[in-house]
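Anyone? Bumping this.
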Amino acid sequence: MLSRRIIPCLDVRDGKVVKGVRFRDHVVMGEIVDLALRYRDEGADELVFYDITASPEGRSVDRGWVERVARVIDIPFCVAGGIRSVEEARQVLYAGADKISVNSPALERPELVDELAAAFGVQCVVVGIDSLRDDDGEWRVRQYTGDPSKTRSLPRRTLDWMIEAQQRGAGEIVLNCMDSDGVRKGYDLTQLTAARAVCRVPLIASGGAGEMPHFLAAFTQAQVDGALAASVFHSGAIAVPDLKRYLQQQGVVIRLQEAADE
Amino acid sequence: MSVVLVDAGGTNIGSVRYALQRLGVDAALTSDAAQIRAADKVILPGVGAAGPGMARLRELGLVDVIRGLTQPVLGVCLGMQLLCAHSEEGDTQCLGVVPAQVRRFAEAPGLCVPHMGWNRLSPRAAHPLLRDLDEGDWAYFVHSYAVPLGSYTLVGSEYGDGFSAVIASGNFHGMQFHPERSAGVGATLLKNFLAL
């Protein structure tokens, strides 16, 4: 049985891990490699690093820290942040990332998803989607969310983009529900359930985790493959081993770290 | 001991190399036939599609070189699939050193393709490659094509149907998951390979 994945997300800014609330007011949480190793030792199933300032600043991710992480980490990790071309993706993958995630650049030029899938296979290509419910009740995508002054609303509906991204070659979708991000009231189960219905590749929930039952609900109600969270892990409010034991007790298929591995 | 990583353009070469470094082995990255033939151990990593993977090995003149190797060889992920006879991916003739066919996972309700994430291993044979591997240990998989269970299967796993997680035929071995990304279990299996 495939396990559900617990995925700490590390937002990277100027080489440090930071976290904001609703994508604002970032505070430094620690060094990239230290936090990566800590989560690996605690039994995280995967890590995601978002270079949150790369896309608004129009630059690609800095591959120096990608290589440092790859040298010490023996669990998979995904890198996101301003990857705009096959060549930039190749740099990040060759530096040791297992997957690359594209968000704003894929909205600028959707063919990027096709090109990445053709070059590296769909299994390397994650499409990240930032989504917000508009006043008319529709979920629509947002672009350049790393910098609130540059964030744009697009007319594209979230679920339409999710379907198109899969047709173009997305091997995994991370859906970040911005209404709930950083406020710890729980994942947006309504939106995730709607997304699950149209998502035939692995779906990762993002935004809103505050308590252990929030993870359980995402897995059992929205049937997501993985749950991503940042602040609850960085702050120590939820420890990954406690969370995984809790989920296993609740009947979720989860990987518990083998004793010999500690 | 000399270990070489066959540089056929797979994007996980760096990760496999770092995993070997964590075990104290500095593997050379090469596409040189003489260096590959002379190595004690040969690892064929690989991420991507079967057709381009075989095309690269042909361009590098390595198809017959790999087929003729007699030392322990390990294919990882796509590298394992390239050791097989044929892949449905792009209808590709592969190296044919393991008598297996590579097939696409059938999509089914609740079964996403690619098969991506941690899944359980189930050893089916006694083999030095499997030392200290326990029933139910977890490994990290990312793939859309798989090798069905067969006489060459050392370790099975299950996604819808059973499939091969580790295969072997003579001196050729393959791991469908990524040992370089499978935490302690992956390190154990790589260590076992180096000790063959």
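Late reply, but here is one note on the structure posted above: Helices of chain B lie at 13-22, 33-38, 50-59, 63-67, 78-82, 183-194.
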